[in-house]
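Our platform keeps sequence and structure together, in a single record for each protein. Such a record has a labelled line for the sequence and another for the backbone structure tokens. This encoding replaces a full spatial description with a residue-level series of whole-number codes. Below, we set out a record of this kind in full and without editing:
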Amino acid sequence: MNYSDKSDRLYSKRSKNATGGGHENRTGRKTVENDPENDREKKELNQLWNVIIDCVKDNKKLVPVGQYTPGIKEVATFHIE
């Protein structure tokens, strides 16, 4: 997936490395765009979108649990409060 940061008008597209993964990560983001590159990513983005919309609708939030470290811990986990 490609990501863009609109908070400072700089756009960051995911750059492919030798293993085909990776993207630039910057702090201070207020808006993040996600541009799926294939059907699987579109389906996963739609699932995430529905979870986020349900949280907003019910006045809940997603809170990160633990850590996500590419190459070490490949799963990002969130708790819905």
User: Anything to note?
Assistant: The chain has a mean pLDDT of 75.
